[in-house]
Each structure stands twice: as structure tokens, then as C-alpha cells.
Amino acid sequence: MPTATDIEHLLRGADLRVTRPRVAVLGAVHDHPHADTDSIIRVVREDLGEVSHQAVYDVLRALTSAGLVRRIQPSGSASRYEARVGDNHHHLVCRSCGAIEDVDCAVGATPCLEPSEDLGFAVDEAEVIYWALCPECSAREPAPSGSPRHQ
Amino acid sequence: MPTATDIEHLLRGADLRVTRPRVAVLGAVHDHPHADTDSIIRVVREDLGEVSHQAVYDVLRALTSAGLVRRIQPSGSASRYEARVGDNHHHLVCRSCGAIEDVDCAVGATPCLEPSEDLGFAVDEAEVIYWALCPECSAREPAPSGSPRHQ
DNA sequence: CGCTGATCTTGACTCGTTCCAGAAAAGTGC
DNA sequence: GCACTTTTCTGGAACGAGTCAAGATCAGCG
After folding, report:
1. Which is higher by pLDDT, A110 or A57?
2. pLDDT tens string for chain B (151 positions)?
3. Statement to judge: residues A49 and A98 lie in one domain
4. Model pLDDT, residue B142
């Protein structure tokens, strides 16, 4: 939970101008990991009053390409963002309700970053998604028989 | 490359009615691994003449939930489908051109299907994507400086 | 052959996201 | 503080991927 000043430093460190929308968005992403764009817009507006959705999209793009946030797009749901970057952790995603949890890399420090054969590709990231049913959902619909609906 | 009859058997084996669109779609997925929905529609139409996009979407959904094809959705690109199912292999995806290659699981037979801590989630699949630059693209734009555009 | 429910067609529609352009506002370096 | 540049705002409009709904058609069964 970085303070407003921490966030300011983060922005400056990434050569980004410090603006109120940026501080608010980055703060929102820190406070609500895995939030989708819509929730972020809502949180930011609670904080600042009216902010155009356009601005939020712009800011999220800027932060993403500066590497301050990471964008994740699990199948069939809108983009989500998280501020935990740099460490390479993975995600548990519930097929039913879409809940997302962080998990540390199963294999080790420099984890799964190496496919068995790289075919000449220059790999820079390994993204792992564990598809699952979260405890609540597996209680509700015990056997994910047939086809799990994860739209 | 299964023949039309093979495909028919596959469909029947999965308790699916054998219709011309289904045969064509399943054939197309076999012939064009990692094709997106649009390309599949195009291929199917070359084969059968007019087919509604709706039908193709329906068929792909049916095939996916029957387990005859697998749906993959790398962040920021449309759904793609492949007919190689059952073995759990992973994908190399080029950030620049979107090319996809199969790679076998790096870790072993029952591979990455276990996060370090599962938080009570019932994991049924681990999806691994290696983000990379393919040989052609890394020749073209040597240093992927700044933010790779992979929209 | 004829029924029946599964499948396909048609066309409109939602959703999340991006693009546009000009004007206003705000951050930064001097 | 000022000028310069970037960012944001307004309010569109446009986009692609995917979905919905109603009716027509077809596969598979007896």
C-alpha cells in the first residue's frame, strides 16, 4: 500500500508526469489488484470526482507500457490490471466466477522462463494461468461436468 | 490430417451430429492450427460456400466443450483454436506478429499442473504462454525497446 | 417416410475498447 | 513566473469480437 508520495516517486522514476488522474489510477490498481477497467474508473471517480473514461484508458496504457502495472486478460473477461510487477508470479483463475488469486512461481526463482525448445524465439516472459474452480464455486456446482462455462 | 471420414468418426465419438459445417470447421482447425475465428470462417466458406459466422461460433463452442478442439486466447488477440488436445503442450507467442508455435511441456509429463499453493482452488488446467519475439521479428526490430506493441 | 429436437440462418445488438479532434488545463524546465 | 509540452476533457463515433432471438432447415431416429 504505497502512499501518495511513493506513487509520485514511482511515476517520476518511470519518466511520467505526475498528474492527479495518474496518481489516482496507480493507487487504485495498488489497492484493488486484478480490478477490471470499469472498477478502476469507479474507484478513481470516488477519489477525484469526474474523470473521463478516456483519461483512465490513457493512463492505464501509459502505466502498462512504462512497466508500472501489468495487464492481464484471462479468456472471456475484460482486461484487468495489477501493480505487482517484476517478480514473476502467476494466477489462479476461477472458471466460474472469474476470481483471480496470485500464486508464486511453482518452479523456483527464475521459473518457467524456458520452454523445452525455443525454436529460435527470444522468450522474455512466461505467463502461467491455472484454471480452476474457487472454493465457493466448487461448493455451489460440485462437479464441473461437461463443459465448464467460463464466459 | 484426418480425412473427412476420420472427422465424421471424431464427431460421432463425441456424440455430436455430423453436419456439413461441423465437418468443415473441424477440418479447418486440423489444417490450420492456431487459426483465429475469422480465418476459420474464411476457410470454411472456401469449402462450403456461404456459412453464417454464427454457425461457426456455435460449432467451435460445441467442439470445444466436447473436447475435440482447444481454445487459446493469448492476451490482446482474438480466440484461436487448435485440434491438438489431450497432451498438455504450451505455446510460444510472438509479441510482434502474433505467430504461435507449440512446445512440449518443459517440466515433465504431468507438468505444471500444480501451483505452489492452491488456496483451495480445484485446478484442472495449467495454461502456459511463453511471450517472445520470433526469429523474423527479432531480426526486423532487434531491440524490443520500450513497449512492444502487441495489440 | 415422417417426426422431433438439434442445428443453422438472419440480422440486430451488446460490450469493452480505441480513435478522433479541438480546446482547456496542468506539469516541468528555465 | 513563463513558456512549452504533455495530458486531460468533451462527446462523439467507430471498431471487432462475440452474443441473442426467432424462425427455417436438417440429421438421426423409428
Report:
1. A57
2. 788 789 999 999 999 999 999 999 999 999 999 999 999 999 999 999 889 999 999 999 999 999 999 999 888 788 999 998 877 788 899 988 888 998 876 555 444 556 666 778 888 888 888 888 888 888 876 544 433 333 2
3. no
4. 54
User: Do B91 and B66 lie in a common domain?
Assistant: no
Chain B interface disruption, residue of A64, A100, A125, A127, most B CBs within 10 A: A127
Q: Are B2 and B68 in contact (CB under 8 A)?
A: no
Please judge whether B115 and A125 are an interchain contact, meaning their C-beta atoms are less than 8 angstroms apart: no
Confidence of residue A105 (pLDDT cuts 50, 70, 90): low
Strands (E) located in chain B: 35-36, 70-72, 80-82, 90-94, 100-103, 122-133
Whether residue A78 is contained in a domain is answered as no
Same domain, A96 and A146: yes
Question: For A114, which of B106, B116, B125 is closest by C-beta distance?
Answer: B106
Amino acid identity for residue A139 in this structure: A
Q: How many Cβ pairs closer than 8 A exist between chain A and B? A: 138
Q: CA(B25)–C1'(C1) in Å? A: 31
Mark whether B67 and B44 lie in a shared domain.
yes
Chain B residues in contact with A110 by the CB 8 A cut-off are none
Q: What is the rounded CA–CA span in Å between residue A93 and residue A11?
A: 30
Q: What is the CATH number of the domain that holds B53?
A: 1.10.10.10
Q: Are residue A91 and residue A142 in the same domain, yes or no? A: yes
Which of residues A72, A97, A118 is at a domain's end?
Answer: A72
Q: Which three cell numbers stand for residue B130?
A: 511463453
Strand partners, B81: B35, B71
Q: Which three cell numbers stand for residue A96?
A: 466460474
Q: Is the residue at B80 inside a domain?
A: no
CA distance B76 to chain A (A): 7
**Could you say which of B12, B40, B72 is where a domain stops?**
B72
CB A121 to CB B107 under 8 A? no
A52 and A22 in a common domain: yes
Residues of chain B positioned with their CB less than 8 A from the CB of A146: 65
Which one, of B41, B146, B149, lies nearest residue B97 by Cα? B149
Range of the domain at A52: 4-72
